[in-house]
Write a structure and sequence with these properties.
The protein is mainly alpha-helical and 144 residues long. Helices cover 65% and strands 0% of the residues.
Length: 144
């Protein structure tokens, strides 16, 4: 992977996304799981004439999905494979065909590829966020 750190979102925005995930996880933010990606969209607006804003949104969604995944690993006894199954996470190739992308199917494997095909990436990341947020709420409800 070419990029190791976050290039399109600044540390302040990264902290806001982290706070959103933390508040959602702790239950202090009372929103539905379907509303979670819309909150992120408000934080990451797109200017049609500026490609960097599209990359910022993709990277912000990527960052939020990673934080949710880390929360699930840390706060539950669920392993990686079970998270993928229970949150219904699908591979990027599924969204490649779902969105009608013209990129080669085997092309979408890294975060760099997400930035090259932002339409498919945003659909995938949005669905991943909803699935993981739903699973996180489900895990938090169950007594350990």
């Amino acid at each position: 992977m070419r990029y190791k750190g976050l290039h399109y979102i600044n540390p302040g925005l990264s902290k806001q996304i982290s706070n959103l995930v933390d508040e959602f996880s702790s239950g202090t933010l009372k929103i539905s799981v379907e509303e979670f990606p819309f909150r992120l969209k408000k934080m990451l607006p797109i200017d049609k004439l500026d490609r960097n804003t599209i990359c910022r949104r993709v990277e912000g969604f990527f960052h939020a999905s990673n934080l949710l995944f880390d929360k699930l690993i840390a706060e539950s006894a669920i392993d990686r494979k079970e998270i993928v199954i229970r949150a219904k996470l699908k591979p990027m190739g599924y969204y490649h065909y779902f969105t009608g992308s013209r990129e080669p199917a085997d092309y979408m494997k890294t975060r760099d590829d997400l930035l090259n095909d932002p339409n498919a990436a945003l659909v995938k990341l949005s669905n991943d966020i909803v699935g993981m947020a739903r699973l996180l709420k489900e895990v938090k409800k169950k007594p350990a």
